[in-house]
């Protein structure tokens, strides 16, 4: 993909935002190369970046984006940045703190798309204890589920939209039975 490439996009019905149909996923990109890799991807024409707290590299993703913007390669509004709410933050009282941390880590003013990462609410792990929290609580060898109904989580996501901090919200890794 060259920097001159025009990536086809989908128009999101609620906002009219254009979401590129090809994006750069940041899962399993090691922290030591993420910043440079993201900046290079932008120079090569990528405009959609998929991130998540659980990937453990959001600070570096944000630095790569910032470098490209500072170098004049792209403007923020030309990018489509997606990230996801991790499973340990599904309780309504944890959504905003998790979101604020991700916004800070990525160094952005808003997200284009914020998703519920998985339909599996896990036991809350305070950020001071372990961040990103991953699938298992510190010192545990198995996941611990939490009761956090989606219908209580969703209004907290909507608040982020109403505050102008997120343009679009959605779900990830859900199936039709949910």
UniProtKB/TrEMBL annotation:
Stretches assigned to the NADP-dependent oxidoreductase domain: 26-176
PROSITE patterns assigned to the protein according to its UniProt record, in alphabetical order: ALDOKETO_REDUCTASE_1, ALDOKETO_REDUCTASE_2
InterPro entries: AKR (IPR020471), Aldo/ket_reductase_CS (IPR018170), NAD(P)_OxRdtase_dom_sf (IPR036812), NADP_OxRdtase_dom (IPR023210)
GO function terms (MF aspect): oxidoreductase activity
Signal peptide residue numbers: none
PANTHER family: ALDO/KETO REDUCTASE
Name by which UniProt lists this protein: NADP-dependent oxidoreductase domain-containing protein
Organism: Jimgerdemannia flammicorona
């Amino acid at each position: 993909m060259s920097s001159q490439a025009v990536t086809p996009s989908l128009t999101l019905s609620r906002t009219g935002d254009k979401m590129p149909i090809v994006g750069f996923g940041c899962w399993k990109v090691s922290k030591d190369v993420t910043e440079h890799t993201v900046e290079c991807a932008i120079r090569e024409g990528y405009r959609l970046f998929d991130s998540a707290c659980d990937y453990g590299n959001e600070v570096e993703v944000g630095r790569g984006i910032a470098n490209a913007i500072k170098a004049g390669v792209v403007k923020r509004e030309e990018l489509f940045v997606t990230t996801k709410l991790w499973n340990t933050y599904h309780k309504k009282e944890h959504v905003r703190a998790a979101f604020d941390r991700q916004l800070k880590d990525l160094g952005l003013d808003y997200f284009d798309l914020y998703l519920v990462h998985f339909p599996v609410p896990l036991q809350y792990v305070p950020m001071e204890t372990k961040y990103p929290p991953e699938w298992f609580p510190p010192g545990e060898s198995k996941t611990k589920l939490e009761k956090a109904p989606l219908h209580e989580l969703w209004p907290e996501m909507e608040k982020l939209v109403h505050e102008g901090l997120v343009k679009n919200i959605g779900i990830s890794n859900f199936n039709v039975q949910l």
